[in-house]
Amino acid sequence: MTGARQAVAGAIDWLGKTRNLPAEQAYMLCSVCGDLRISEIVDAPNWVVAFYLPRIVFE
Questions:
Q1: What confidence tens digit (pLDDT) does each residue in 8-50 have?
Q2: Total structural domains in the chain?
Q3: What is the CATH number of the domain that holds 35?
Q4: Smallest Cα–Cα separation from 33: which of 13, 8, 4, 3?
Q5: How confident is the model over 32-42, as pLDDT tens digits?
Q6: Are the beta carbons of 37 and 25 closer than 8 angstroms?
Q7: Residue 26 burial (CB count, 10 A)
């Protein structure tokens, strides 16, 4: 859960910096279009979680 929270928070920050979105709009966009993925489970319990947002959203 910690990794998921950090991934979403990072995506919201990134959207604010690169796309000039307010935090509320970035959060809604992440909620609707984003996808959390487990990238690595080998080093359990330190799992790597990634946030995926398709580029098509911005085109």
A1: 999 999 999 999 999 999 999 999 999 999 988 887 787 889 9
A2: 1
A3: 3.10.28.20
A4: 8
A5: 999 999 988 88
A6: no
A7: 22
